[in-house]
Amino acid sequence: MINGNAKEPDKLASRAVELLSEFKNSMQALSSLTPIPTLRSPYDWVVPPPGRLKLNTSVAFQRHSLRIGVGAAIMDSNGKVLAARSHSLVGSFYVEVGRMLEFRKGLMLAKFYNLPVSIAECSSSSVVSSICCLSSNLEDTHFIDNDIKALFSNVGICKCQDSSRKGNSLAHNLTSIAFSSIRHII
Fold this sequence. Notes:
Domain RNase H type-1: 56-175
Protein name: RNase H type-1 domain-containing protein
Low-confidence stretches: 30-42
GO molecular function, one term: nucleic acid binding
Strand order of the largest sheet: 3-2-1-4-5
Structural class: alpha/beta
Shape: elongated
Organism: Dipteronia sinensis
Number of strands: 5
């Protein structure tokens, strides 16, 4: 059937051959084009090494409703999104606590899907230094620190770094979605 109308097998096969030929011609036309090199800003998303996965996380605070939005995305070296999550958490959190919860939620996403993430990026240099230096500015974050460190070994993180909002744009956009719905997206 094509567009709801029954077709004879010969006509259907003929149409399939036409479509395949058209597709091959378009692919040849695309492959003959030389790609225009683009210079990436150092603040753009940085591709992980081939065969590696990267986790990006972000958080947004909505003080008037006492909620934070958390976004996380796991991508491969081709920029393909393997998993993404947007989640809203109710509560009034210190900024550092919210940023650590953001990071923890992203690592939990990787663990849930059993994805071996080797690089983790979050939007806060203070969180990265807190995790890497085994210290924190707030007592409230000690239990989150411990969770994050345990998740690091479970997931396979070998590098942790901060990134700009532009380099973390997908995860940051996911935080907005968290505020638009009461339900979270998996």
